[in-house]
Amino acid sequence: MKYMLMMFGDGATMMQSRTPEWVTEMISFMGSFNAELERTGEAVEARGLADPTSAKTVSLVDGQVVVTDGPFAEAKESLAGYWVFDVKDEDRAVELASQVVVWAERVELREVPDGPPEQ
To answer: What is the pTM assigned to this prediction?
Structure first.
């Protein structure tokens, strides 16, 4: 079963509210976490994302495509990175999410279906 684990946070707040040692430990954890997923063959993809100030919102307004700077939502935290992994069951996906949430403000876990729902 494939799952997407999304990690949310605010890089600027993290750098102001956390010690340099904490940040170093978190980065070390992420490297170890990714290496373990590669070792077990569960990794499909893992990415960190650029700061949301580089984001563009593309929307359809009155039939016209409109592009604006920044994320659409007015929120302190945004999507900071994600993993897609292929695991045996939901319990394993939750186990992996439990490791990441220690280092993130919030994570979200969703199943990634192989196709559209059965009719």
So the answer is: 0.83
